[in-house]
Amino acid sequence: MATTFSSLPIVDLSILSEPSPPSHSLQDLSRKLSDVFSTTGFAYLTNTPLGFSHNQVFALASDFFRLDRAEKLSVAKRTFVGGNTNDYRGYFPTQPDQLDNLKEGFEIGSVQAPRQRALVGRHQQQFNLTEPNVWPDEYAFSAGKEQLETLHQELQLLSTTLLSLLAVALGKSQDYFASYLTDSLSTLRLLHYPPQPATSQTTTATGPKLCCTPHTDSGLLTLLHQDPSGGLEVLNAEGQWVAAPYVPGSIVVNIGDLMAHVSGGRFVATMHRVRASTGSCGRADGMGRFSVPFFFEPGEECVVRSVDGGERVVYGEYVRRKMDTWVEYQDVPESRADAGAHSGVVLEVC
């Protein structure tokens, strides 16, 4: 469990933008990341070596969600539009009957889809983790498609660098986790929480109104672009929800369940949620809340063990078991999707 803390630490990554970072500086950064992930499990990353500003990232999200509903539903997952063939990548619409999970989203993987493997049992028809990305017709040859693919590539590279630093912190070589990333399933997710009526309450009889329910993430690392509307809260060891407000220019990073396992419990996957603000799940300017998480994941066939031995986990089997509990992969009548009455993943959505 995370330790007692009242705010999230800030980790400066400016050293990673240098052509040849000094080894002692990288060692210092490795120790800093180890300390953060052994205590809070969360941090703000500043001065990241990315080619996109926050404004550019959220402009990409805004452009997608401004598409006509028919365009978005043309790439909706088969759970929501039965005539579509994509199961794992693509769009999911809002879910008004889930009042603490009001969002729509769009997900892409790497530009080069991972190698497909033979699927067995009921999963053969249910979903394919290695399916290629799907795009609305308007994106077929657009700059937006190319930019989103580039953003995915840059976040994958940054996450890989952070993973190598964590390997050193765990007493391993920098390339210790390199094999994990063969055919990586990492996901870039664009999320939009539409504004709710001004009469909406921010508290209920059981506690605060939530845009995203308490959860931990499944994979190795999550890198999150959050917008100024804020609402992210992280649970400390005393059971207190600590606000993680927007810090201009920063990316929030947190450990996932799998990385906690890999570290032998040294790193912590911390519970977090998103709280509604100003009577809605969104900004006071009426535009709604945008969130762009990147889920850094190994390949489907990756065999994961903790650095001190421990239980063997095949990532594809592990994530499929979790997917069985996600709303996105339950049987949903197509008519509900047509009415815009269903949404996506319950976990990992902030």
UniProtKB/TrEMBL annotation:
Biological-process GO terms, alphabetical: small molecule biosynthetic process
Protein name: Fe2OG dioxygenase domain-containing protein
InterPro entries: DIOX_N, IPNS-like_FE2OG_OXY, IPNS-like_sf, Oxoglu/Fe-dep_dioxygenase_dom
Family: Belongs to the iron/ascorbate-dependent oxidoreductase family.
Pfam families assigned: 2OG-FeII_Oxy, DIOX_N
Alphabetical keyword list: Iron, Metal-binding, Oxidoreductase
Domain Fe2OG dioxygenase: 183-298
One example GO MF annotation: metal ion binding
Domain of life: Eukaryota
